[in-house]
Design brief:
The complex is a heterodimer. Chain A is α+β, with helices and mostly antiparallel strands. In chain A, 51% of the residues lie in helices and 15% in strands. Chain A contains 11 helices and 2 strands; from the N terminus they run βαααααβαααααα. Chain A has helices at residues 38-47, 50-63, 74-81, 86-93, 103-120, 152-161, 164-172, 174-178, 184-193, 196-203, 212-227; strands at 19-35, 133-149. Chain A has a two-stranded antiparallel ribbon. In chain A, α2 crosses α5 (103-120) and α4 runs antiparallel to α5. Chain B is α/β, with parallel strands linked by helices. Chain B has helices at 19-26, 43-50, 52-62, 81-95, 109-122, 131-147, 189-199, 239-249, 270-280, 301-312, 328-337, 352-359, 372-375, 388-400, 402-419, 422-436, and strands spanning 7-9, 16-18, 69-74, 99-104, 154-158, 175-179, 204-207, 220-222, 257-261, 287-292, 318-322, 340-343, 364-367, 383-385. In chain B, the strands form 3 sheets. Chain B has a 6-stranded parallel sheet with strand order 4-3-5-6-7-8, with helices on one face. Chain B has a 6-stranded parallel sheet with strand order 11-10-9-12-13-14, sandwiched between helices. Classes of the chains: A alpha+beta, B alpha/beta. The interface between A and B is large, with 34 and 37 residues.
């Protein structure tokens, strides 16, 4: 993690454009693809919609945001609980969705992991799981919140109050919109407030060993240090 | 607490129960008078629980649905998860500016016998559907169809009992939604084929788990059922009241309490719970509370209750409570008094009793069936089991590992707060209405 005292702090600029806190609500749709073994999973992973990959990775992290450690995506969870394929489960759990700025790349990575696993564990291809993996996708409604920030203190105060769904939307999902390995908060802090150092620090936060409330607390702590 | 020196030997386990408690267990004080109805909560009452941002989401989604009309139809006004759900959901939608109504279909014994057979067969049970059952089912649906008027923008039919009401769809402008609350992952093919042509007439279907969805030509959505945190069943209770309820039922709060709350239904496996308790009891001290009743659409309850009593034998530490449908507060108190809550279902739609237990921060041991794994994430929000022996092992483990039990309870409560509260449910309904109106 960057050391706050390593670089001189410049005064925080006033923002030209405010930060509008939004969030997304999802309605989960049950899709047709189902997999009872790894061969079927691989086939479905290649052919399912991008919405489906999003649902089982980005979205599921939001749905289970309160669990600090132990739940990273639905594919890993299924490999662990329904197949007891611990090696595969670990490989899949290690996929960090923040490394990806497109669902296509994320899908390719997951497919590659399953293919690689099956190269060494070919007997697993047709062995049935205890229960099927059911692919889902979601309908999305993006909505504004009442929180708008014009300055760093405004932003910090709003961040303390917004729903964790808003944090997920701006901090985790954002890279799919931005097509950059960053997030809406860092982008705004860097471009509007000139806080490059803090913007980078936010990108270093570990979303897999902290729940979203913890992430909120860590972001606020970084911002408060600067405010103070 | 006063103790009674006279004690009764318990044949299994060798522990002793004070005579006064033993007497109360044999003759629990059960209210015979329904309490007056409680006025529905207002949205603002949810704010301390779910937070203002969550309510803002609801108001935002409601903006484009102002004045839209919704009719919810199910088969029972009292008892069972669906009735509880609608009791809270309908007023909440109205407060959001959506004109929601709730209608209950009527039926005689032959209809409810048929629907019970259908219910069990759809959940994989061996219940043949006779021609007489089919006739009773068809005739009753037709009678209700003639009685009810469907002029709303959205007509939501809950579960198989009123499924044929969709025959009224042609000519109307409303969107028809079938909300299936039961586990359809492995239905009896004959019974499913009997219902499927009706289901295919709907504009959308809703299931409680992805595994329940069937191959249908209509969109299928995932709705987790939800609990109302302000209802009698789930609201916070005074410690004194919890103690009073335990006293009424002869429950000793100085010893661990393992509880299953479910109506007496074979698919809830109450006999399996008794067996698991008896195994666990060989190494840990505890009492077992089986609290249930019969919904008005469940004629098998008495037979199952008899089986449970036979399985319990003369073990005084097994407390079997056949409670009337108006026992929400008492059940709330029982859940809060419990050390561990079990829901060892063999089939389950969703298992709202699991949700209730998780909401109260209790460690839950539950069957790995139906919608339960959506709630109980093994070793993170509870423990999933597949047999009597596993259930016994987890009872022993959680009673002897209170820190693990507390962590599961804490995670479980957060899981419910995020995914299974009434506010989330109202949000999903409004999102679905948006989708069906082409607003997304």
């Amino acid at each position: 993690m960057n050391n706050l005292t390593a670089a001189p702090l410049h005064p925080v600029k006033a923002a030209n454009s405010p930060f509008h806190f939004n969030l997304a609500a999802y309605l989960v749709q049950i899709d047709r693809e189902r997999a009872l073994n790894l061969g079927e999973l691989l086939e479905a992973l290649r052919n399912c919609s991008e919405d489906s990959i999003f649902q089982h990775t980005f979205r599921t992290l939001q749905e289970h945001h309160f669990i600090g450690e132990g739940y990273s995506n639905d594919f890993a969870h299924w490999a662990h609980i329904a197949r007891h394929e611990e090696g595969l489960a670990k490989e899949l759990a290690d996929v960090d969705i923040r490394s990806f700025t497109s669902i296509g790349d994320l899908r390719a990575n997951i497919v590659q992991i399953v293919e690689e696993y099956l190269r060494h564990e070919s007997a697993s291809r047709d062995r049935s799981a205890l229960k099927p993996f059911c692919f889902c996708s979601s309908e999305t409604v993006v909505m504004p919140t009442s929180f708008v920030a014009y300055s760093l203190p405004d932003f910090t105060k709003a961040l303390e109050q917004v729903s964790v769904h808003s944090i997920h939307y701006h901090f985790i999902e954002a890279r799919l919109r931005l097509k950059l390995r960053t997030n809406d908060f860092s982008q705004w802090m860097d471009h509007e407030l000139g806080m490059k150092q803090e913007a980078n620090q936010l990108n270093d936060l570990d979303i897999y060993t902290s729940n979203l409330e913890d992430i909120r607390g860590q972001i606020v702590a970084i911002l408060r240090r600067r405010v103070n | 607490m006063k103790t009674d020196k006279a004690e009764v030997k318990i044949p299994t386990g060798g522990k002793q129960v004070p005579a006064k408690l033993a007497e109360r267990r044999k003759h629990p004080i059960i209210s015979k008078i329904p309490p007056p109805p409680v006025p529905p909560s207002k949205l603002k009452d949810y704010e301390p629980i779910v937070g203002r941002p969550e309510l803002d989401e609801l108001y935002f989604l409601a903006q484009k649905l102002q004045g839209k009309t919704v009719k919810m139809v199910n088969s029972t006004a009292l008892g069972g998860g669906v009735a509880e759900l609608l009791t809270s959901l309908v007023p909440m939608l109205n407060e959001l500016g959506i004109k929601a109504k709730w209608e209950v279909i009527s039926g005689k014994d032959d209809f409810f016998d048929a629907t019970k057979a259908i219910h069990n067969a759809l959940q994989g049970g061996e219940h043949p559907l006779t021609e007489r059952d089919k006739q009773a089912f068809n005739a009753n649906n037709e009678e209700n169809r003639k009685r009810l008027v469907f002029e709303e923008d959205f007509i939501v039919i809950h579960d198989p009992q009123p499924v044929e009401l969709v025959a009224s769809k042609p000519g109307g402008h409303g969107k028809w939604i079938w909300r299936c609350h039961i586990d359809l992952s492995d239905p009896n093919p004959e019974v499913w084929n009997f219902l499927k042509p009706w289901v295919e007439k709907y504009d959308a279907t809703i299931f409680s788990s992805p595994a329940f969805a069937r191959q249908l030509p209509v969109p299928q959505f995932l709705f987790y059922p939800c609990i109302d945190p302000l209802s009698e069943k789930n609201k916070e209770l005074d410690e004194a009241y919890v103690q009073e309820v335990c006293d009424d039922y002869g429950i000793d709060r100085s010893r661990p309490i393992v509880t299953q709350v479910s109506r007496f239904d074979r698919l809830k496996d109450p006999v399996g719970v008794v067996q698991a308790y008896k195994l666990a009891r060989k190494s840990v001290d505890c009492q077992l509370v089986l609290a249930g009743g019969s919904a008005t659409d469940d004629p098998e309850g008495a037979a199952v209750l008899k089986e449970v009593k036979e399985a319990a034998g003369d073990d005084l530490d097994i407390i079997i409570l056949n409670l009337p449908p108006w026992s929400a507060l008492q059940i709330n108190a029982l859940q809060r008094a419990s050390t561990v809550i079990v829901q060892k279902s063999l089939r389950e739609g969703f298992g709202l009793t699991v949700t209730e237990a998780l909401w109260k921060g209790k460690p839950v041991i539950a069957g790995d069936v139906g919608g339960i794994p959506s709630q109980v994430i093994h070793k993170l929000t509870g423990m999933l089991v597949h047999s009597v022996e596993e259930c016994a092992e987890q009872i022993r483990y959680l009673l002897t590992h209170p820190k693990v039990a507390a962590e599961l309870g804490k995670n479980g409560r957060e899981h419910v707060k995020e995914n299974f509260l009434m506010s989330s449910n109202a949000k999903r309904w409004m999102l679905l209405f948006h989708v069906l109106m082409g607003l997304t």
